[in-house]
# Entry
Amino acid sequence: MSQYQTKVLAVFNQKGGVGKTTLTGIIAEYLAIRKNKRVLIVDLDMQCNSSDFWVGMEAAPYANGAQLPPIHPDFDGDPFFEERSSIADIFYDKGVLSHSVTIPKKNNMDQGCIEILAGHPDKLEAVCTAFEEATGNTPNRIVNRLKDFFHLDDVCNAYDVVILDTGPSRSPVFRAALRAATHGVIPFEPEEKSTQGINAMLQAIESENLNRQDFERLDIIGLCPNKVRLNTNLHRDQIKTLRSKVGDLLFPEDTYLPVSVAFPERDVKNIEPKYMMHINQKHKAYLASSRVGEYVFQHLFNAVPSRDTGTTLPDIRAQ
Ligand SMILES: Nc1ncnc2c1ncn2[C@@H]1O[C@H](COP(=O)(O)OP(=O)(O)OP(=O)(O)O)[C@@H](O)[C@H]1O
Ligand SMILES: [Mg+2]
# Structure
């Protein structure tokens, strides 16, 4: 069991485009709308796709990544905060302002509220540079910074779960996410090269757990297959092989997220419905997303026994 009150769920895979941001959003929606949980999304990816989805990034041609987080509506000039508040500010010992997003009531579902701490491409990159150039205790401080932040009473009291959307690299910010996480989910596409990314993540978790006490081990909820086409031999074989190696570390079959245009459609600005929980409830994307949400919920909140990550995780490389 973790000592934290707030669950911190990291969604990670160093491979790009496998569905980290998509999964972050789906889980956040499900927990907020269907389970009435107080959810905070933290965007730790310099691409800031989650920030753009939830609050909208501003185009800024001369800024890193050509975008900036929006000016926070509650910013009042207090020097403790930045007007374009972002999670990066905590690395500079500043306060942060989260954005609130209300998901309206629709169909038979209640209204939900999600908060998000936006990313900031320039500043997140600066954190990484500071880490590379730092001496003494600074690198350690950077890696521990997120964890320390999520331990603050204000944060613990305000949220039931924090979901970390991470970028496709092993940056110092990624290391900080790994250090802060109480739970992890690894989305992947069942393609030929996917085992590499999964293995790298499992190894990263294992070495992180070597630094932790038994009671605070990072609990892997599992590997979540995404963009799945079970009507192809490639996907069926990949998943079967993986299942034989990792067993129930792989999500159950009814949660596999199918390839569907319903997922990228969410990213189109001003599209309706914007949220996965609001699409047709018979749609395969809705059904699988809800099952993923429920599976993660059960692990986070209903005390599904933790995986004993104290023992060696499976090495899934081809033998
Ligand atoms: N099941 C799916 N079917 C079809 N398209 C999908 C599915 N899941 C995600 N996508 C699309 O694939 C693209 C990549 O997904 P996403 O941004 O979630 O991946 P990511 O791992 O966060 O990428 P990055 O590593 O760049 O942060 C997006 O356009 C998304 O809408
Ligand atoms: Mg992403």
Observations:
- The longest strand covers residues 219-225.
- Residues 7-301 form a domain with the Rossmann fold fold (CATH 3.40.50.300).
- The pocket of magnesium ion (ligand 2) is lined by residues 20-21, 45, 49, 165 (CB under 6 Å).
